[in-house]
Amino acid sequence: MRDETKYALKKTAFYFVIFTAVAWILIPIIVAFLYGFTTKTDYYNPDIIIPHSYTTQYVRTILFTLGAWEGIKNSVIVATLTIIISFILGIPAGYSIAKFIFPGRDMIKLSIVALRMFPIPVMAIPLIVLYIRLHLADTLLGVALAHTAMALPFVVLITSSIFGGVSKEYEEAAMVFGLTRLGSFMKITLPLALPGLAAAAMFTFVMSWNEVFVASVLTLNHRTLPAQILSIMAGSSGGAAP
């Protein structure tokens, strides 16, 4: 009986901690969401905690008048392009580092990490000049390429770790039965690595979605959502970011 009581108390305490943590995270988000639809009268009334009247005027203004909806679409396009380009370049590089032994492999891995040592603001002016010459300025592809340069080192390191965890015996067995190395990779290694690749894709998407400096510097009329929000906060819905 005592064991059952202890188990019940532990279970109750566990669920209480989980509920408290979830409430701690969600309540501010819910309150902020509700106040986004609150009328001006309720918003500035200090005696009101839960708004009584709601309106979609301000949300519609931000989304459609100030261009946030267009920024959302641009962010999705840029993040998707970043994932595609990063994976096209990063998966072969990560696989090569994980599966092949060649001179300078450790130096290449170190060089990949070292790419993140250079602060982005330092490279902003040369990047703008290059983009203007290549006609990539103020384009979503240009922003996606810049985001790819930021995400690619992490994608290479993550994929090399993922492929390194897949035993080479699986590929060797597949090649014994007639598959080429590419065939064994596509049919054996890649399916086994999909969960890790999905995590890498999520990381790349979030990094691209949240990035604001490059998108603000390289675009004027085709801003991503963070860059558009920065522009709105600066008091300009379409001008250059400060």
Average pLDDT score = 86
- What is the helix fraction of residues, given as a range? over 70%
CATH architecture assignment of the largest domain: Orthogonal Bundle
* CATH fold annotation of the largest domain: MetI-like fold
Amino-to-carboxy terminus distance: 68 Å
Overall 3D form: flat
The total strand number stands at: 0
Biggest sheet, in brief?
Answer: none
Number of domains: 2
Strand content: under 5%
Helix-strand category: mainly alpha
Radius of gyration: 25 Å
Query: H/E series, N to C?
Result: HHHHHHHHHHH
Low-confidence stretches: 237-242
Count of discrete alpha- or pi-helical segments spanning 4 or more residues: 11
For this structure, what is the CATH class of the largest domain? Mainly Alpha
The CATH superfamily of the largest domain is identified as MetI-like
Written description of the protein model:
- By secondary structure, this protein is mainly alpha-helical.
- It folds into 2 domains: 2-55, no CATH class; 66-233, Orthogonal Bundle (MetI-like fold), CATH 1.10.3720.
- Helix content is 74%, strand content 0%.
Quick summary:
This protein has 242 residues and is mostly helical. It has helices at residues 2-36, 40-43, 57-65, 68-99, 105-114, 124-133, 140-164, 168-176, 181-210, 213-218, 225-233.
How do the helices and strands line up, and which of them pair or pack?
Layout: H1 2-36, H2 40-43, H3 57-65, H4 68-99, H5 105-114, H6 124-133, H7 140-164, H8 168-176, H9 181-210, H10 213-218, H11 225-233
Helix pairs in contact: 4-7, 4-9, 4-11, 7-9, 8-9
